[in-house]
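Chain particulars:
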Amino acid sequence: MGLGVGIFLAAVGAVLAFAVNANVSGVNIHTVGWILLIVGIVGIILSMIFWSSWAGPGYWSGDRRRRTTYVDEGPGPY
């Protein structure tokens, strides 16, 4: 789950939990809203932990070598 999906779930959950005043038989809308809100917040937190700038993708993979690029500028002046 990415950051966008987490924000979307949290927003839909907040709307269902706080703004909807409907009664549906068999389903509690407020409970569904709270569940979506919590899942969205957990998704946002996990996304920020795993994709933050201090760690980034590949930080935990074990490949700690720094990649270096060399540019060949052609033959020197003679």
